[in-house]
C-alpha cells in the first residue's frame, strides 16, 4: 500500500512538474535569459552554462558574506555558545547546500527536463 501511495504521488508531481516549469519560464528572469540564448540558436548545454555563469557571482557573494557574518558564532566558546554554535552550523550547512544546489544541480536538472520535454 505504501509503495502504491509513493507511485501515485510521484505520478501527480511528475504531471504537475511540466505545468510548474511553464509558469516559471514566464516569471523567472534567469529562465527568460536562458530562453533568449536558446532563441539565438545555441544548444541547451551552452545556454545553461552561460545562464549559470550570469548567476555565479551574485550567488557566491551572498553565500560568502553570510558565511563571514556567521563565522564568529561558529568560533565562539563563551557562555551561550551551546545555543548559538549549533544554529550557526545548521545555517552555514544550509548555505553551502543551497549554493551547490543552485549552481550545479538545478541547471543540470533543467537541462535534463528540457531535453525530455522539448517540443522540437
Describe this structure in words.
The protein is built from four helices and no strands. With 120 residues, it is mainly α. It has one domain: Multidrug efflux transporter AcrB transmembrane fold (Up-down Bundle), CATH 1.20.1640.10. Helix 3 runs antiparallel to helix 4. The longest helix has 37 residues. It is flat. It starts with a helix and ends with a helix.
CATH topology: Multidrug efflux transporter AcrB transmembrane fold
Largest sheet: none
Strand content bin: under 5%
Q: Which spans of ≥5 residues are poorly predicted at pLDDT below 50? A: none
The backbone outline, from C-alpha atoms, is flat
Reading the helices and strands in chain order gives HHHH
Structural class: mainly alpha
Q: Which CATH class?
A: Mainly Alpha
Q: Give the proportion of residues in helices.
A: over 70%
Overall pLDDT metric: 81
In total, the number of domains comes to 1
Number of E strands: 0
State the separation between the terminal residues, measured CA to CA: 39 Å
Gyration radius (Cα, Å) is 20 Å
- The name of the CATH architecture is Up-down Bundle
In terms of quaternary structure, the protein is single chain
**CATH-defined superfamily:** Multidrug efflux transporter AcrB transmembrane domain
Number of helices: 4
Amino acid at each position: 500500500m505504501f509503495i502504491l501511495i509513493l507511485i501515485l504521488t510521484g505520478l501527480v508531481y511528475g504531471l504537475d512538474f511540466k505545468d510548474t516549469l511553464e509558469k516559471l519560464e514566464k516569471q523567472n528572469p534567469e529562465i527568460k535569459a536562458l530562453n533568449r540564448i536558446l532563441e539565438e540558436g545555441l544548444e541547451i548545454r551552452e545556454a545553461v552554462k552561460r545562464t549559470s555563469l550570469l548567476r555565479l557571482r551574485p550567488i557566491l557573494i551572498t553565500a560568502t558574506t553570510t558565511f563571514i557574518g556567521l563565522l564568529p558564532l561558529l568560533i565562539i566558546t563563551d557562555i551561550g555558545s551551546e545555543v548559538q554554535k549549533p544554529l550557526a552550523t545548521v545555517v552555514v550547512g544550509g548555505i553551502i547546500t543551497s549554493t551547490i544546489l543552485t549552481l550545479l544541480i538545478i541547471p543540470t536538472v533543467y537541462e535534463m527536463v528540457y531535453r525530455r520535454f522539448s517540443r522540437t
